[in-house]
Amino acid sequence: MKKIILIGLTAITLLSACNTVSGFGKDVQKVGDKVEKAAD
Fold first, then answer.
1. How much is the pTM?
2. What Pfam families does the record tag this protein with (predicted)?
């Protein structure tokens, strides 16, 4: 029973981390777009 709970928590943590990294990438892209527009 403990193994199942541990595997579930691990899966949730990994999926959450992926979403966090994805969101961070989008934020960085927005900043890059603003810098490009300012340079033009």
1. 0.46
2. Entericidin, LPAM_1
